[in-house]
Each structure stands twice: as structure tokens, then as C-alpha cells.
Fold each of these.
Amino acid sequence: MVHGYTHRTTRNGSVITKAYRGPDAAARCAAETTMLRSLAGLLPVAPVVATGPAVLQTGLMPGIHGQDLIAAGLAGPVLAACGRMLRRIHRTPVPAPIARRAARGGVLVHGDYGPNNVLLDADASDVTAVLDWEWAHAGQPLEDLAWCEFIVRLHHPAEVAALDAFYAAYGSRPPWPEVHAVMVARCQWMLELCERWEPGGHRPAAWTERLATVRSWVS
């Protein structure tokens, strides 16, 4: 099994190994390790088995990937479950290690939230695991809300209407101009990251195209 954009993820029996790639790989590995240990028992996160420089091993979590369930026709239930889980994440106390680094207050922000990083049960009624915490930080709820919408609009454009279920389950929906501005800013940030990683390569080119696409979106 191979999964992930800024890491290579493989499975050996019940152990998942993530080898981080790109800029700041060791720091991102350490950050995710800290988050998983801090959130154990509070949220459905994988247990840490072992960790080292830029490599993290965790236990296998049950469930079916959210994007696979969307492809199977369950976009509404998947996004409703994502909304409920995100509300729970944002109500979880910010772990001390990242709270100490925050310049200002804020909620626990996953940083890459969407159906791409959740596992669910077979009927998509409940999230069984939230994956990939390497970008977690203390921030504003809008960051996760906007990125989840970005993932749906980019990868599942036929299911944009199902975002209603996501926001209804979360409990509120920010105005489109605010959501759109955050999407654009995050895509610009991803472009800059990829330029550091692979100057002039295919990753920056892909994010340049995505940035143009996002700027063209209307409510």
C-alpha cells in the first residue's frame, strides 16, 4: 500500500510505516508523533509503535478510506461523518506541546482535514480514524473547514452538493468569500513548499495549476 503526498506509507501486517519526504521531513515526523501520543484516548488516532528520524510506525486502524466510500456513492454520509468529527476535533483541548508554540490562542487544527485523511465504517456513519497529523497546530476552525471543501471540490467535483451535509453536521458554514480566501492562501503555501522541495519540477507546476483552478471557483 502506498499513500500520501509528503510521505510514503506502507503496510506490513498490522504495522503502518510512514517515511516522510520533502522539506522539514524530520520535524514533521516529530510533530506527528507528538500529536498522536497527545491525542491518544481523546480522538481516534493510530497508536505509535516506533519512531525515528523522518520515519514513524503506527498500529493499523480499522475502517475504509473516505474517498473510496465517496467513489462508492456515499458522499453525503461520508461528509456528514467528517463534519461531526471535525466539530469534535475543534472542541478537543489543544495539546500542550503545540499550545506552547502558538503565538495566539486558537482551536486544535488538523491542517490537512478531509475525506482524504479519515477512515470510516462500512456504511460511512462514523469516523474510525483520523490520519496524517503532521500539519496540526493551534489555529482557526476555518482552516480545516476550507481545506475539506477544497478536497471535495478538487477531487470530487460531482459531489459538491454533499458539502451541505458536511457543514450541517459541523454546525455552521462560513461565508464563501472567507472559505475561498483560505483555500487560495493554502494553495499558495503548498506551491511555495513544493518550490523548496523541487524547484521548477512537476510538483510546483501541479500546484500552480491548482492555484489557478481554485482562484476560478465561485460559490
Note: The helical segments are 25-39, 66-71, 75-90, 96-99, 141-155, 163-170, 176-197, 202-216.
Amino acid sequence: MQHRPRKRFSQNFLTDAAVIDSIVREISPRSDDRVIEIGPGLAALTGPLAAIVQSLHVIEIDRDITTQLRTAFDPQKVIVHEGDALEFDFAAFGPDLRVIGNLPYHISTPLLFHLRASAHALRDVHAMLQKEVVERITAPPGSSDYGRLSVMLQYRFEIESLLDVPRFAFRPQPKVESAVMRMIPKPVAGLHARDESMLEDTVARAFAQRRKTLRNTLGAVLSPSDFSALAIDPQARAQTLSVEDFVRIANYRSTRADA
């Protein structure tokens, strides 16, 4: 397949055969897997995946690429969906879905949150992203990279960074390094937030001004006595709190709101 990369779609096409082989090995697809690939591009992963799985769904926003994909592959084998992955209903495909993708870097964060909303329908997600984004997602509490993205995705998924991908593995070469990560949804029974919207609000408030203390960032919703009841130091900063700490704060707020 041939295609001139388009900047408006953040197109950098994976071309390195060794990297492609490594990613497929990490995914370890089986013939009966139900797989959706986001952003197939020039089919670097699509080809190897289609050779293994019985049917593969791909989501591509570029009309020229979708036309080429429909010509290059058996339509019964590779089902092409033309559109924006941010508007795609992943949960509509039922349970145990495997999602794979070289995520467009300019929409990677909203796309990850979109996938998070469908976590109940997913078996796993293998995603290639800007390396610094993967570092933020996997960062532990206390790290300078730890933030809202870390907390909200680590709450819902077990996450691990699998391999780094150098710039020369793409055409054209991006200005940043890339990495592949795996996200596996945590069992619903192990999720303890009473109200996830309250958790999202708490985390967003806490990290809105990273250099300020929790007394400043959460002071509008927690009083000094609330901090004491939670055994949370109001002089601490958001990046020092664990995911479990944020869940406790959110549950405390939720319980108080219901009283």
C-alpha cells in the first residue's frame, strides 16, 4: 500500500519488520480472538493479524486508506469501518474484545478515556503511544510523571510498558520516541469507587494546579476536619497520593453528599 502521510491525522506509518514482529508476539493473537485495530494505516499490523484471526475489524478515518484496505483484503476477513475512533462504540461488539492500535498521538488521551468507558467489554488493549505518555500512564505515586491520566487509567486497568519503539521504525520519522503498552481491565468486583464521576472530579481538582497543596486544590470540597477524618495531610501535593487514596477521598465525598 502507498499513501502520502497527512499531518492533520498525525500519520506516521510503522515500517520496521522487527518491531512489527515484536508487537505481534506481545499481542499473541489466536484464531478465534475478537479483534479491533485502531488506525491500521498501511496495514503493518493488519496483515500479520489478518493472517491469524478469523475476522479483524479495523477503524480508519482516512478515506483514501480505507479504500486501499478494502481492495487489499478479503472483506469477509478484514471488516473496514471508516470513521473517528473517538465516536466508535466498542462496547457494541460484546464482551472479551481485544483492541490494538498505533494511536494518533494528538488524540491519544481522549481516546484512552473513551476506551476506559468500554473497559467492561474489553479483554485487553495493546496500544502504541508517544513514549512520554506511556511513562505518565505507568508512573507510580511520587513521580513527577504521575498525574490525572495515571490515576484514572490505573484505577481501571493493570498496565505495563512492553517495548520502546525508535523513531526510525516509522515513515516519516516522528519527532518523539514511542512505546507499546498493555492494559488489562481490572475485575469490576475489585473497583471500589462508589461514584466514578466523583472520583474523576476529585482527581481533576487535585491535579489542576500540581504545585499547590491539597489544602488549596481540594479546599473547596474538603474542610480541615475532613482531611483529618481521611488521615490525609492537607499540606501534601496530589502526586504523593495513591490511587487508593483518591478512591477514599471520592467515596468520602460521595457518602457525605448522600447524607
Note: Confidence is low (pLDDT under 50) at residues 5-9.
Amino acid sequence: MAVDQELAGPRTYGNWIRPRSPGLAGLGTLGTVILFVGAIVAIFCFMAGQFTAGLIVLAATAVLVGLGAWRDKHGMSVLERTAERTAWWRRRGAKHSAYRSGVVSRHPWGTCQLPGILAKTNLVETGDATKARFAIIEAPAQATYTVVLGCAPDGTQLVDSQDVDRMVAAWGQFLAVLTGEPGIAAVSVTVESVPDTGLKLRARIENEIAPGAAPFAADVMRQVAATRPLGASRLQAFVAITWNAATRKGGRKRAAAEMAKELASRVPALVTSLETTGAGVVHCCTAQELCEMVRVAYDPAVGTLMEEAAMTGQTPIIRWSDAGPVAATERWDSYQHDSGISTTWMMTGAPRGLVQSGVLAALLAPHPAIWRKRVTLLYRPIDPALAAVLVEADRRDAEFAATATVRPSARDLTRVTAARATATEEAGGAGLVNFGLLATATWRPGDEPRDVVAAMDTLSAMSRIQLRPCYGMQQTAFAVGLPLGMQLEKFLSVSAEIGVRL
């Protein structure tokens, strides 16, 4: 058996496809339509004797097609980058890039409410079938309800490769089950590295020292507690599961009380299933835990104060209406919020080829140049009925792109192979999900931002993924990166379906 495993080698993963629409020379559906319409209009102009008008139409068509066809390494065209910059100028001109709250603000409520897309969210707390309390985040703008699960991942150190493979398979099965779960809208996994103050370790050592212990041994343990936390970091993980208010498109939207009753019976089973994926001990986050987590995210300096209060048995009372920042300013490539400055990157390219299970280990691990780092994987389960249609459409689009030219590129041929394999796996019962990634790095106002950017570039290269700063939407990307169930596609001015076809 050992010989067979050695010959087989480590297990690899891959076969992901970036959705795109068919078109001539990589233009996409919209670009191809513009090309044909422009050519037809120009022909009619020439037939009518309007040669000048025909030339103008051809020139305009060529410019539009050229601006939409030329893309950078992140897949962004000139038109898309121009629209991105224009939207930012409009927001900045309308003074929507600055936020002030609290008792000194102009708002009549006098609280530190959450900014941006989180402003209209509500937080309610209920109990599950085991009488355990958990919080539900209601987002009326999205018509969704989110439950956040706190995890303590086991990690892969000193774990056999067979056990790692089983955990990865269990996570895949968990996502496959969610594709058939009625009303599931999205799932996100957030792993955050935060500086360790050492207060918990110090309290644990003080409690473990026996009254009659040797002075030398007690001094050694206290010295360990005083020096060990210097420069250390700890990881905390969350899984946010989001349900639609309506079980089907066009159906009746359920109220918060109705959803609380339904989720109380469904969440315990999901917690049990999640624990088999290597997530460790999983618990449902309460309203107090979510308020503290969000408050620390917007004002990292208060994290130490909250931990000190917890060590003394005190619980700081934080309401959802006071979890936001006092002052926040959004810039083109960064977001300043109270005691921290953050930049959020989005994944524009998944790892090419096949990867092993630890491909994201470098990106998730703490880094000495980054004060706080948060990596969020965004999943959108696809209904099994729709998945069959999508995989067949992807297969046809890939085959069309490969046969549209006499000499197809190696990337087009690889995409055909991946699309066919995905269709085969889906026909065999595998689930289908869309996924993305957001990475947020937070530093102190006195730190050097270039060191943070360089560190993130190195980590992304080690994880074989391509990252691009969320230019002009740092505030929104920061909120989506939090484990609160916010879906970025619900707030796009152009729908994601149309954007794919550009």
C-alpha cells in the first residue's frame, strides 16, 4: 500500500474555468456584436453614397472594438479601466469618499453606524434547536440572511497526507451539499492573522502555577509568558453562510422571524458537517462576538482593550449601531479607518495548472511586515439544474474559441480540456460553484505602505494567484472581505452576467 501511494505521488487539484462568452478573436459576445453592427451600418452608408459617414462609422467601430479587445494582465480592458476611474471621480466629487459618525458628526443619531453597504444591515439574535444563541445578519438591500460560524482550524502540521486529502474531500462534499440546500445564496471563508498580545497565555500560566511551585520554575514560566508574545501572531477563522429571503426567484420573501425559526433547525446540522472538514471546533457566533469582531476590524487599536477586558471578566457592551468607525476616508488604492489603513486586493487569476492542497498556505500565514491580514474566499453555489446548463455552455464556448482560429493557442486548448472534464464531473454528480478571493492588509499610520504592498506581492506569487488592488472601491471591498455575507455582485451598477460577456 505504501508503494502504491509513493508511486501515485501527492494529490493535486485544479480544473477551474473563468467564465467568458464566445466571440471572434477573443472579443466576446458584446464586442463581436459591435463589430458586426458597425460593419453593416458602414456598408449601408457606402451603398447610399455616404462615404464620409461610412468611414466615420468604421473608425468609431474600430476604436470601440480596439479599446474593448486590448486587455492587461488582469483581464481589464481600456474601457473598463476608464469606467472605473470615471466612477471614482464621480464619487469623490459627490463627497462620498469620506465618512464621519459619532456624537460630533452631522447625523442626528449620534452613533458610529457602519458605513457603505453595511449601513442598512440589521443584527438579530435567536436560539437554535440546542438552545444555543446565535446571531443573524439581515441585509434588506440584498434580501439575504447570514449566519457566521467561528472555527478553530486544526492545520496541516504533523497531519498525514491521507488525512489532509480526506479533509479536502470533506470540504468539497460540504460545498456540494450546499448547492442542493434550498435558498443558499453564498458562502465565505475568512482567515485573519492578528497580533497576539499574550494576555491569554499570561493568564493561563498564572492559573497553572501551583501555590507551592519552586520559585525558579515559576520565574521561568512567567518569563516565557512575558517574552513569547513579542512579534507573534494568531489566526482566527470564520465561515459565513448566506440564505436568500426567497427560496426561489420571484417567490415570497420571508421575514426575519420566519427565517430565524427555520435557521434554528438547519444550522446545527451544518455545524456538524463543517467540523469534518478540518475546521476544528465550530460554534455559531453571537451578536456580541460579531459586534466585537467588526468594531476591531474598523478600529484595530481597540482589540487589545477588548482582550484586556475579557481577561478581567468584563464584557464591553457594543451594539451593532456602534460597531462602525468614527472616521473613515476612502482613497483610490487604500482605505483609512480610525486607527488603521487598509488596502484590499481581488483575485484576477486563479493558479494555473494543478496545485496541491497547501497552495494558499503562504498567503494565509502571518507576515512580519503586515500588522493584520484578512483573506476571504467567496463561494457562490450554483443550483444543480443550472449547473448542467452552465458546464455545457462553457464547453461549447471553449470549443468555439479553439476552432475560431486556424492556430489556437495552448491556453485555448487547455481550456477545452478543462471544460470537458468539468462537464464530465458534473454529469457524475459533482457540485459546481463560482469562487473568488479578497485579501485585505492593514497597517498602522506610521508604517511604510510600500513594504506591505511588496509583502502581498510576494505572498500572492508564492500562492500562484494574481491579485489586483480594488481601485476606486476600497470601502466596499473592505466590507465584503468581512465575514458578514455581503455579496459584491448585488451592488454592481452593471450585472455580473453582462460583465462576463464584455
Note: Residues 1-7, 495-502 have pLDDT under 50 and may be disordered.
Amino acid sequence: MISSVCASGGPQLAERGAPPWLEWAVAARPLPGEEVSGDAALVELDDGGAVVAAVDGLGHGAPAAAAASRAVAALRGRCRDDVDALVGRCHEALRGTRGAALGVAKIAGDELTWAGVGNVEAWLFGRGRPAALLLRPGVVGEALPPAQPVREQLRRGDVVVLVSDGVGSGFVDAFEAVGSPQRIADAILDGYARESDDAVVVVARYLGGAAA
């Protein structure tokens, strides 16, 4: 199993030994003036596929970071679960916390399945106009809406981008799938992170041949 986790605001990329069907990166930073970030990310792969997630703990500072960390822990080691189960696990793990917004994408074979609650956005680039993946209002850990997973077929070179609401949506119109996922993630964070919130960006490029 190979995983890349960003739970405290520093960009990380795990490339060495990564399967040839997916490359990814995370870029993040806390609200200016804070030492920890309430936004977190997880990318984890095994022979059952991949889970790509972004979490935005409500508010900022240590309580938000604690909620986000719980969600990441609930997702870890669950590449074989479907997205409904993943969201449900996070909901149970976050009870009693301030809650979080959550976006989870699972890749298995050439299929992407996505579920989002709250204001973590996900975009799919690579087939003409970018596609925004469905979000439902709610708070994971407090008010969970009925699951409505979205399924998309992936093609080689497609790029999935997840961002917390600390990242302005202007990056979508300016998006260029050029260079490594780390370069793309860093450019989005540097150009569009809001000064009023934590921010996280997760970028994953599908290279074909994922485990089914």
C-alpha cells in the first residue's frame, strides 16, 4: 500500500514506487497566523484501487485540525470500500467534533466514483469543458445527507482536482494540465488560496490500467 497524507498544512508527494496508473500530489497551508490547518488530504492506493480525499474541518485552528485528522484516520486502509461506506465511516468518526466538509473519490478500473458533502469541490479535467462533481449540503459528523454517488468513466490523462473552500474557484477557468501533479497543485494553491481560511489542493492524474 502507498499513501500520501497531508493533515497539517505541508505539501507532500509520494512518487517513489507509485503504481504506473496514477500520479498525485497535495499542496496545503493553514490560515495565515495559525500553526495548524483544519484542512487535510489523503491519497491511498492498493491493488483494489485508490481513494483520493479532501477534508475541511469546520472553522480553523486545533479543533478543526482534530476533526480533519479523525476523518483521514477513518479513511486510511479502506481502498476496497465504496464511497458510501467511506462517507459513513467518517460521519461516525466525527460525531462529537465540530464536523467537516468532505470529498471522497474512489478509482477502480477506469471508473471514478465520487461523493461530496459540504463545500469541498471536485473537478474532472481532460474531456473538453471541466466537469464539476456533485456536492450535497450537510456536515459530516452532524447532518449527513442521503448519499448520491456520481460515476464517471476515466480516460488516460484525465486529472481530478479536489479543493477546500479556502481555494477560490477561479482556478477552473485558468486550469492547465501541464507538468507534474505537484506543479499543478502548487500553482493552484499559490494563485487562488484565500487569506481568510485554511486551504488544501489534491491533484491526481489517471494514467490508465487501474486495478479493477
Note: The radius of gyration is 15 Å.
